[in-house]
Amino acid sequence: MNPWILFSSRLCAVSAVLLGVLLLTGGPGLAGQEIPGAAGRLKVVASTALIAEIVADLAGEGVEIATLIPPASCPGHFDLRPADLKLLAAAHLFLLHDWQSGRFGESLTRAAANPGLRRVVLAVPGNWMVPAVQAAATARIAEVLAEAQPRRAEEIRAAANRRAAALQRAESRAAARLAAAGAGAAPVLANAMQADFVRWAGFPVAGVFGRGEEMSPVKFAQAVSIGRESAVRLVVDNLQSGSLPGRAIARELGVPAVTLSNFPGGLPGTETWEKAFARNVGLLCDALGK
Questions:
Q1: Residue 1: other Cβ atoms inside 10 A
Q2: Which of 11, 81, 140, 289 has the CA that lies 20 to 30 A from 26?
Q3: Domain spanning 3-174 has what CATH number?
Q4: Of 144, 139, 103, 143, which Cα lies nearest the Cα of 120?
Q5: Which residues make Cβ contacts (< 8 Å) with residue 261, sequence separation at least 6?
Q6: 274-286 confidence digits (pLDDT tens)
């Protein structure tokens, strides 16, 4: 498929989500009562940097934000510390991804001994580094913040509108660069945690592989075999999963290995989603020599 056609269809999908942000009004779900004590600065604990970065962008100086999991760490291998319970004990909102709801369940909220803490599970599926998913996450978090601070709802929605427009511009720039680099004609092997982003970027994904502890000698050999049969040009690994499997597979195949991040701040100089997104796109294009 022509890469421009592929990207155009994805841009249309993002535009539909962005329109939902732009039309965000005080309808159902935004009419809740203001959180007691949050009329000043809202204290938010975010489970990951993906959530924290959106909150900071939308609410600005109106919030105090703490992030539980460091951006370069694997969320699945993170253990809570006593200091984290102290953060929750003083917070108004605890925001987490839906895939963390079991790990950070209601028992954690009770352990914080904070009856005023509101725990919100953000049911936004997919890789949040993909623009359409990031747009959906922005819209959802805007709803939560507007409900928590109704006096600032208009300000928060305006910030969501600005972010929506910035997301669309970022995707347009990335689409042009990836198409020029020939992403659509470059088969890759990808870590399972990066497969959705790599597909968004237009690369044909010949196969996926897991993190280090999941890669038995048999699975390693299978990945290498798929890579050779598909003449892959690149192996893409995930920073938060560890980059050793991807590098080892790439050495066997004699192709470049690239390590992308699924979280803002995972790589130096990528403290915002837009910077992390641009870095990931740049790494992919650089690996293709474009």
A1: 9
A2: 11
A3: 3.40.50.1980
A4: 144
A5: 71, 72, 129, 238, 239, 240, 267, 270, 276, 279, 280
A6: 999 999 999 999 9
Structure tokens given for 63 = 């919030």
Position 190: which residue type?
A: A
For the chain, the structural domain boundaries read 3-174, 182-287
- Cβ–Cβ under 8 Å, residues 143 and 93: no
Side chain identity at residue 201, one-letter code: A
State pTM to two decimals: 0.86
The C-alpha atoms of residue 207 and residue 228 are separated, in whole angstroms, by 11
Q: How far apart are CA 177 and CA 182, in angstroms?
A: 9
Q: Does residue 182 come out as left (phi exceeding 0), alpha (psi in the -120 to 50 range) or beta?
A: left
Strands (E), the chain: 42-46, 63-67, 93-97, 118-122, 188-191, 205-209, 234-238, 257-260
Please write the tens of the pLDDT for every residue from 69-125.
999 998 887 888 888 899 999 999 999 999 998 888 888 888 889 999 999 999 999
Q: Is 210 exposed, middle or buried (0-12, 13-18, 19+ CB in 10 A)?
A: middle
